[in-house]
Design a protein that fits this description.
Blueprint: E1 4-11, E2 15-23, E3 28-36, E4 43-44, E5 47-48, H1 50-69, E6 74-79, H2 81-84, H3 89-99, E7 104-106, H4 109-121, E8 129-134, E9 139-145, E10 148-155, H5 159-166, H6 173-187, E11 200-203, H7 205-218, E12 228-230, H8 231-242, H9 246-253, H10 260-274, E13 278-281, H11 286-296
Parallel strand pairs: 1-6, 6-7, 8-11, 11-13
Antiparallel strand pairs: 1-2, 2-3, 4-5, 8-9, 9-10, 12-13
Length: 297
């Protein structure tokens, strides 16, 4: 029996990803591509600009050629905050349907959190914790116990929107203070995780960025999934990066240099609010959670 093939396109606020899976029963990822579109940067007065929309369509057309070459039977195209929150959401969905072979399925903030939690519980051996999906345009925070969702929220900011709002490459002390104050204020409503002392488990490119930095600084030879960073080290890294020049940040973070300080601000404030002793990096994401849900249910 030839293996079934399944493709997922994940349209995030920062990155558009394609994953192709094959298998009978258990699915194996056989191809992955990503393009950093930063759709959140193309939101103007609440709407996705025509430039941003055209770039998305162009990427989807490229992805279709790849999918066609692999003779994929089933395709799912999902999207999160950048399109979900856009004022011209209907225009975007219609244009993609007219100009590409895909129809976009918009995930709600709760669905995004559920798939993220499933990705975490399938790959990180923790029964209780706080799952965090630090995306480009939103941040999902989920309290889970016994591997089950207890409460979740989708916060209206991500690293791209924070970088855009606070001009996030080499931030002045005053701007950093404004950024930190904003994040702290947004977290005050999350009374259900305040002081819970549970580990934070993070998914998303910005969490991976900080994890890779920690591993490189310690000159470790290990994978990123399951890697733990202590609260104190997160604070130390934040202080180190505050003092870096734009050039120094760009040397290791490359095109994501402007996202490092916003990401660390969110991590730092959330860990302090929950009194979490560590953050554990998870290299899986919502597309993996979707696959797990489809093939383990």
């Amino acid at each position: 029996m030839s293996p079934q093939k399944f493709a997922i396109i994940d349209i995030g606020s920062k990155t558009v990803r394609l994953s192709i899976y094959a298998g009978n029963g258990q699915m194996e990822e056989i191809r992955k591509d990503k393009v950093s579109l930063r759709l959140s940067e193309h939101i103007v007065n609440g709407s996705l600009s025509q430039t941003g929309l055209q770039r998305l369509i162009d990427v989807l057309k490229e992805f279709h050629q790849t999918i066609h070459s692999y003779e994929v039977e089933t395709i799912e195209c999902i999207a999160t905050a950048a399109i979900r929150n856009a004022n011209n959401q209907k225009e975007i969905l219609t244009a993609v349907k007219e100009h590409t072979p895909f129809s976009i399925r918009l995930l709600s903030g709760k669905e995004e959190a559920q798939y993220g939690l499933l990705a975490i519980t399938q790959s990180i051996p923790k029964s209780d914790g706080i799952a965090m999906d630090l995306g480009g345009g939103s941040t999902e925070i989920t309290l889970f116990r016994n591997r089950q969702l207890v409460q979740t929220v989708s916060l209206p900011f991500g690293v791209v929107t924070l970088a855009k709002r606070f001009a996030g490459l080499s931030l002045s002390e005053a701007t950093l203070h404004q950024l930190t104050h904003y994040v702290k204020k947004e977290l005050t409503s999350l009374t259900w995780i305040k002081g819970c002392r549970l580990p934070l488990i993070g998914i998303g490119g910005s969490v991976r960025l900080i994890g890779k930095y920690s591993i490189a600084q310690k000159k470790l030879h290990r994978g990123l999934n399951g890697y733990s960073i202590a609260n104190s080290e997160v604070q130390d890294i934040f202080e180190e990066m505050k003092s870096m020049t734009a050039t120094e940040l760009s040397m290791w973070a490359k095109d994501n240099a402007d996202l490092a300080l916003p990401a660390l601000s969110v991590l730092s404030e959330l860990m302090n609010w929950a009194e979490s002793e560590e953050i554990i990096c998870c290299t899986k994401g919502i597309k993996d959670g979707l696959i797990y849900g489809k093939h383990t249910s």
